[in-house]
Amino acid sequence: MSKAREKIVIVAIMIVVLIIAFCIGLSFGSTKIDIGELIDAIRTNQKGLVVYRVFLYVRLPRVLAAMFAGAALAVSGVIIQGVLHNPLAGPNIIGVNSGAGFGAICAMIIFPYKVGSVPVMAFLGALITSLLVYLIALKSKSGKVTIVLAGVAISSILSAGIDALKTVFPDVIIDSNSFMIGGFSGISIKSLFPAVYYIIFGLLLAMLMARNIDILGLGEEMAQTLGMNVKLNRFLLIICSSMLAGAAVSFCGLLGFVGLIVPHIVRKYTGNNHKLLIPCSALMGASFVIICDLISRVLFVPYEIPVGIVMSFIGGPFFIILLLKGVKYNQ
Length: 331
Fold this sequence. Notes:
Helix content is 77%, strand content 0%. It contains 15 helices and no strands.
């Protein structure tokens, strides 16, 4: 099989998996939706039926939120790993999610009646955190593990800041525990916008800059030799990554490990060609989060656990394995 055909097959499989995950996510939960009954309700415009209302106001917004959040966080992880040249990096590992969360919490307090301010402030928080970690990596010239530890330290500081704001403004921040863990319970179509616009724009920008990430992977000197403005491109990529992570965190909370797990799995099939890695990571990230959210809904029916807990059970061991492999490699 030629490489071009192989790429088409990989993307096609990812799309099929996403469609299946999306349909299953819509069908199952604490209330099972009968597809035939739902089609009849939509065709006859019977908006009062339970199946119609559950689908339109509960299940569809939730699955869409999981899809966009998964795609955004996965691609954000791909970009961060490419910019920092660190396979252990991810939006939650180096504190980008915490920065976005801190910004989102500040927006809830300062602009309580302006929903559109949440993704903007989340983006600014993620951007500042990303730049801070990048500067630490640039100045210290330390190893990969040191950069991760610096990100963990920054994340701890920001988490403490979020806890302090929660304590001082308990009435402003609604359902803060769910936000800290990460989840999609109670989400509506209205709460997804304008964050979805930022995510779509960020994904398109990431695709346009895919070749630039490949060039950066060759090393700074080689990239400059090829005529690239390294500092400008890294800054634009950090902005893109922050926009994606910030927009996702604004409606799903501090959802972790997507940006770490998905790029590593996809990279085994696509290699480091970011023109293929980015769209495949977006597709798999969307499917992964939809499936994890489905597990969180059906595992203890009729009770529901936040999807962030499911992700932590999967992502924690995955990160430890990567860390141990890195230690063995360094030795």
